[in-house]
Amino acid sequence: MVLEISDALLGVLLAIAGAIAFSGQFLFVRLGTEDGGVDDAVLVVLLCNVAMVVPPVAFLYSPPYSSLFTPASFASFAGAGLAGMFVARLLMFKSIEEIGASLTSPVIASNVLFATVFAVFLLGERLTTVHFVGIVLIVVGLAVVSWETAATTNPDQSIRDTGATLVLPFAAAVCIGIEPIFVSTGLSGGTPILPGLAVMSVAGTVGFVSYLAMMGSLRPIEFRSTSTAWYVGAGVSTTVGFLAYFSALEIAPVVIVMPLLQLTPLIVALISMVFLPQRLERVTWPVVASALVVVVGAALVSLSG
């Protein structure tokens, strides 16, 4: 007997797999930036993305590779690479270095709000009442997680200082929120997943290397350092996450896929509590309990799909 899985259910499963993979990014970068730098983290992760995606494209597809793209799909994937893989990642990794993974990941997950708004107004996708309730729960859970973690990390911090602390991850969340719009546009042009991800990876890498050159901070990578090893782990995790995420977007709407990816904060909080030393991450039970609200919201979104 063959078990048939609907496209909606498969999209849900792929989105959850992406959340698990993306959680590794936060943890590996947090461990690596204890002794390493953010620029090295972004560059190593981008190079891993390119190394894992571009060769399979060259092997699986025949030249001319330009036939895999339309001008619009190529531009869309390049835009996704610049927004999500370059700008968002730079802001996100800097936030992980400064305030930790367990605070950054919930704030980053607010991208679901931006992604949903962009999808409704730019792609014409429908937002049902159950979707809306689920997204509200996700946002409320993230707000509580962020506030609790900020208070635990620095209890003497003022409300104004707390807001300033969260600027980096919120800015990254906006960039990540627009990324699926570019991706969906590229996929709708008929471009397969791997070539699209290859363009994203190359565009993000070119953009970041150009940024480093302009800032005068381009330098060789220390391949033998422990930090680089952690960054490679982050690169592998993000590549797997993107493949699952792309596959989910190919068969399911943005308003279903993106909220489910927000399971990442709960995964990060639980793993941080169990495995990371307290000098790096201090995660309390209220943080984990609040993160469960995100799971409830994500479940509502998936069930309404």
In short:
The protein is mainly α.
Keywords:
single chain, globular, 305 residues, 13 helices
Description of the molecule:
The structure is a single chain. 79% of the residues lie in helices and 0% in strands. The two termini are 26 Å apart. The chain contains 13 helices and no strands. The model has no long low-confidence stretch (mean pLDDT 82). It is mainly α and 305 residues long. It is globular. It has one domain. The longest helix is centred in the N-terminal third of the chain and has 29 residues, at 71-99.
| Strands, total number | 0
Give the distance, in angstroms, between the N- and C-terminal Cα atoms: 26 Å
User: Which structural class matches the secondary elements?
Assistant: mainly alpha
The major sheet is characterized as: none
- Overall mean confidence score, pLDDT: 82
Helix content: over 70%
- Name the shape in a single word: globular
Number of structural units classed as domains = 1
Q: Secondary-structure element order, as H and E?
A: HHHHHHHHHHHHH
Percent range for β-strand residues? under 5%
Q: Spans of 5+ residues with little confidence (pLDDT < 50)?
A: none
Number of helices: 13
Q: What is the radius of gyration?
A: 19 Å
